[in-house]
Amino acid sequence: MTALRRRALLSAAAALSVPALARAQGAARLLVIGGGFGGASAAGFARRNHPWLDVALVEPQPRFVTCPYANLVLAGERRMEEITHGYDGLRARGVRVIQDRAEEIDPVARRVRLRGGETLSYDRLILSPGIAIRFGALEGYDEAASRVMPHAWIAGDGAQTRLLRRQLEAMPDGGVVGLAIPANPFRCPPGPYERISLIAHYLKRHKPRSKILALDAKDAFSKQALFQDGWNALYPGMIEWVPLADDGRVVRVDAREGVLETEFGTRHRVDVGNVIPPQSAARIAVASGLTDATGWVPVDTRTFEARAAPGVHVVGDANIPGPMPKSGFVASSTAKQAVASAAALLRGEAVPEAPYFNTCYSHVGADYGISVVNVFRPNAEGTAIAEVPNSGGVSPRGDLPEQRRLEARYADDWYASITADLFG
After folding, report:
1. Count of domains in the chain?
2. Helix, strand or coil for residue 316?
3. pTM for the full predicted model
4. Where is the signal peptide (predicted)?
């Protein structure tokens, strides 16, 4: 891994100059790995805005199941089919979609080896591989345990979401649903708390004597006051949130016995367990030497090029985004900037300046939505990102039923809009 980083850095100047000189007048090869919010956005944006690029997308799944709106599936408010999307729209735009798994990146030779044996060459690479679950970070929680206590934090083919939904349906009324929530950073910071809300929504209708125990490795979380206002209004007495300061950090899991054990030895027995463990960038980013000690990929914040591998632009949840959350909207916003930067560098032009946007809706109930909005901008050196002063905001607090109803509707419109943009 260290040798790979050294080779990439030593050849950085040549790696940057060759595509710009050799491909400026022809169809340069843009390869995209990962067909989620970052990768699909990058591929579609490249074809719409830079038709001179030859764009290929590598994605092992024939259809993409979104993590956004999966919590509504758990609540019984959506079907899996409604959050599952194919790639025919991208094919119609001229993207070559390759159904295979990328196994290894050679950033010096600018080649990617696929599991099926094919090797692809590129001039610029957009890497949007998502996350990996750090199995073993919690004692007792491995892949086998996840088939008993699901994490449901990587959509994949939807199997984990379906499993958790079946377990909720099978749980007797009066049972306890236990969640283990990790410390920052992790994918979708408000996601666990939306999940708590929507599981409570399901239980209130079907198993009203049941409880939710949320064990958290943090003392605060995204949109906390808004979520807790909603819990008090909609699900009084049903949800117990235990912060880090009150021994909320889960350190051991006994999936067979249904036990979540916290830092100071408290054993919580639950009927259904949802363990959201610590995470890192996906395996290919780690194996390719792109990550640092945090497990995430440091990038130039103007271009999203990996610090360890010029020419490889890392977007989505795999990178270190500074204060930006690991959200679907951020993945899409930054993927477009990465493509614009890659196109400019291939033509020998200046990288365009751009702000990055985040809009994050959460459902607290079927007809109860809350949101947060942010705008971020990188510094001139590409070493940091800061929120633009006075650019953001959250939903107002208070007894505002029409506001909550409208935000739930806006959330539905946002989901329809962004998935149409990604998948056509």
Report:
1. 2
2. helix
3. 0.93
4. 1-22
